[in-house]
TrEMBL record:
Residues 167-219 form the Phosphoribosyltransferase domain. This is ComF family protein. Gene3D superfamilies: 3.40.50.2020. Pfam families: DZR_2, Pribosyltran. InterPro entries: ComF/GntX_DNA_util-trans (IPR051910), DZR_2 (IPR044005), PRTase-like (IPR029057), PRTase_dom (IPR000836). SUPFAM superfamilies: PRTase-like (SSF53271). Belongs to the ComF/GntX family. Residues 14-46 form the Double zinc ribbon domain.
Length: 223
């Protein structure tokens, strides 16, 4: 691990020369890859205690605003998978110490959307978090059994109706999920309907407890 890190460090000047580091939000020059410029960093809104999160069950890195939205869109729809490092570091900064053994589980994509996009952004974040915290990653613990339409513009009740029964625990992993502590990872939490559906599926599988970690949470009243 140390040798690999030293190797990357030795190549950094060459990489920076060929591909000068830019802010992923605005494109301004920055000191190193994977960082934000001062202006965009200042544009992020970090929740205070009791704002944008349920401190007992949810850890939120940022509140959803124009800056965090641009980061999410670049990561989720723009193919900027390298942003997983930056976003996960911000999430880890808000994630409390979790005692005992935990399984890190991403919110699933339906296979059709996975094929179209080429990756599950929540799985990339989950991998980084599992590695940093030395927890086990179970990337296919949950299945999205049917494709659901975009939830944008739908109210809380309508989102819950659309997602009802759409997410189930993977039958192959029921033994591992039973009695397990689960860290559920998502990129954006809007109404909470998707994570609630995941929590229901994990609860039915016998999980002991679920803690949710997301990068951005929509909280209009907080903004």
């Amino acid at each position: 691990m140390l040798t690999r890190k030293l190797f990357r460090q030795s190549l950094a000047p060459v990489v920076d020369l060929l591909y000068p580091p830019r802010c992923p939000v605005c494109g301004e020059a920055v000191g190193e890859h994977g960082g934000l410029c001062q202006s965009c960093w200042s544009g992020l809104v970090f929740p205070v205690a009791g704002e944008g999160e349920d401190t007992a069950q949810v850890s939120t890195a940022t509140l959803y605003n124009d800056t965090s939205r641009k980061l999410v869109l670049a990561f989720k729809h723009g193919g900027r998978i390298a942003l997983a490092g930056l976003l996960s570091r911000l999430m880890l900064a808000r994630l409390p110490a979790l005692e005992g053994d935990w399984l890190v589980v991403p919110v699933p994509l339906h296979r059709r959307r996975l094929w179209t996009r080429g990756y599950n952004q929540s799985a990339l974040l989950a991998r980084e978090i599992a590695r940093a915290r030395e927890h086990k990653l179970l990337v296919d613990a949950l299945h999205r059994q049917r494709a659901t339409p975009s939830l944008g513009g739908l109210g809380r009740a309508e989102r819950a109706r659309v997602l009802n029964g759409a997410i189930r625990a993977n039958p192959r992993h029921l033994a591992r999920l039973r009695g397990a502590n689960i860290l559920l990872v998502d990129d954006v939490m809007t109404s909470g309907a998707t994570t609630a559906s995941c929590c229901d599926a994990l609860g039915q599988a016998g999980a002991a407890q679920v803690h949710i970690a997301c990068f951005a949470q929509v909280m209009d009243e907080a903004l």
